[in-house]
Amino acid sequence: MPRPLCATIHLDSMQHNLNRARSCAPLAKLWAVVKANAYGHGLERGMRGFAQADGLALVETESAVRLRESGWIKPILLLEGIFDASDVPLLAEHNINSAVHCIEQIKMLEYTQLYRPIDVHLKMNTGMNRLGFRPEDYAAAYKRLRAIPGIRNITHMTHFANADELEHPLLAIGEQVRRFRAGADGLPGERSLSNSGGVLHQPQLADELSSDWVRPGIMLYGGTPGGRSAQDYGLRPTMTLRSEIIGIQQLQPGDTVGYGSRFVAEKAMTIGVVACGYADGYPRHAPHGTPVVVDGVRTTLVGRVSMDMMTVDLTPIANARVGSKVTLWGDGLPIDEVAQAAGTIGYELMCALAQRVRVTEGRMGTDG
Ligand SMILES: *Cc1c(COP(=O)(O)O)cnc(C)c1O
After folding, report:
1. Yes or no: is domain 239-361 CATH 2.30.110.10?
2. How confident is the model over 322-343, as pLDDT tens digits?
3. Domain 11-221: what homologous superfamily?
């Protein structure tokens, strides 16, 4: 028997969440973001789960090529663009749309002859201060890019710093949109603005946020960038991480649990050992109290997460035994709740799912 730890990917939930994103931004074309191995779900599963998307966006050049080799024929976008002039022929060969965010990338495109025309997304830095041309330099960058033979469509793109919060005191979405409009004023081309946070705010901010393309990631995987819960937004979990109890210990008052003896039993209690640890991607810094579901009942983590195991309080679970089913996150336990308890975000938990974890596909509400 393999180790009982297993991640089940719900392709039907991925489709459902894609439809939710569409209904938030019904007029926009949609890039489904599949970077980081489709947020830990597997690139090919991303391709199948988001088959109805208008395009797939990611940052890894080799994964972009893999999508083409796996038969994806719709658009592909490299969100960080290319990393070296030697990547330019790859864009033409595989018909890959590239972000252009700095003068070095423009030079790469100028120096390397394109034997087939390509489309690009020109990126504006509207306050995130990560990638992109400042609004005052944007039109000049556009002009220089436009002059390169072989560059076909140029889409205007920016990225929000605080899309999970409508009125951020330091940098509101509205302010970024104003800078974007000013910087791209009068330039022809489609526009691409919103990540998941922007898409989820689209119903309230339709006029402000309206654009030709949206780029949701986390919401397609049943997580939220912050704010309300995924369930409130009608999103469904796409990854359920399950394992089993593989050992049980009866504690007396004063007994301690695990490395560092971080947990001390105040009363007699039963704890269960779960086959899942930080080498599987479960966060080591998850504290006592992080939620876990055993045999359908919510309980909590106790003690320190170790490499292959973690310990949970079985006191509330009547008939817990070796072999009891444990849900670490997903169907029945929102990943955002686990992430919040562990001081991180759902994105990080999904992306950190380790190579050694078995992955299957199945619908929600089943055991996978
Ligand atoms: C990752 C990424 C997205 C998706 O962000 P989510 O918060 O997961 O929706 C969108 N656009 C760019 C440029 C990205 O890098």
Report:
1. no
2. 999 999 999 999 999 999 999 9
3. Alanine racemase (3.20.20.10)
Question: Among this protein's residues, is 259 annotated catalytic?
Answer: yes
Catalytic residue among 35, 221, 233, 347: 35
pLDDT digits (tens, 9 = 90+) for 15-40: 999 999 999 999 999 999 999 999 99
Tens-place pLDDT, residues 175-189 = 999 999 999 999 999
Question: Which amino acid residue places its CA nearest to atom 13 of ligand 1?
Answer: 79
Between the CA atoms of 87, 63, 193 and 170, what dihedral angle is there, to the nearest 10 degrees?
A: -90
List % helix, strand, coil for the chain (3-state, nearest 5).
30, 25, 45
In the predicted model, what is the mean pLDDT of the chain? 96
CB of 99 within 8 A of CB of 55? no
Q: Which protein residue's CA is at the shortest distance from atom 10 of ligand 1?
A: 195
Q: Is the pLDDT of residue 233 over 90?
A: yes
CA of 356 to the centre of ligand 1 (A): 26
pTM for this prediction:
0.96
Cα of first residue to Cα of last residue in the chain, in angstroms, is 16
Q: Which residues line ligand 1 (CB under 6 A)?
A: 33, 35, 79, 159, 195-196, 215-218, 225
CA atoms within 13 A on the CB side of 61: 16
Place of tokens 């999103």: 235
pLDDT digits (tens, 9 = 90+) for 266-292: 999 999 999 999 999 999 999 999 999
324 CA → ligand 1 middle, Å = 37
CA distance 348 to 70: 26
* Domain locations in the chain as residue ranges: 11-221, 239-361
Atom number of ligand 1 nearest to Cα 33: 4
Give the single-character DSSP code of 134. -
